[in-house]
Design goal:
The chain has about 190 residues and is an alpha+beta fold. It contains four helices and seven strands. It has a four-stranded mixed β-sheet with strand order 1-2-4-3, with helices on one face. The mean pLDDT is about 85.
Length: about 190
Amino acid sequence: MTTTMPPDVAENLIAFRAALAAVVPPKHPADLLIATWNLRALGDFTAKWHAEPGDTPKRDWYSLACIAAVVTCFDVMAVQEVRRNTTALQFLLELLGDDWRVVVSDVTEGGLGNGERLTFLYDSTRVQPSGLVGEIVLPAKVDGPAEQFARTPYAATFVRGSAEFTLTTVHVIWGADPTARLPEITAFAE
């Protein structure tokens, strides 16, 4: 970071971390803490501690410091809506420190894809990727081409001690009507 953290931000982050510690269990050698978070439009950010009313985007250094405080509570976090522009993601990794790494998908193209990526942030002192990553696509149907997910689900396999586990993250189309989500969720489940 190129500027000194303002006292109000430092004070608020101390209180925020204490609040997180009250609801998220501490990291323990026998535990594995996994989370998922839709960080709505994580792309660019305003390069100052406090975004002002006319600033675009509204997400600023303070917001990213709060996000980093949440992420550090976990061993692996799946993040949805990382945009084509990865400036905020790169800054978030700087805030997280040298032990944090990222596995990130390609951008999902097309109108429904919204230029988004799916991402796994992980604490490399607690887990390591196994090397297996991939996107889930639907096979072609006998009577025509396959209909694919609007945003391709993304899977990555990690290792912790002798345990190997695969996590899959998906960002389904939301829509105004909850029943509009069912076909995509059902296809993913199948």
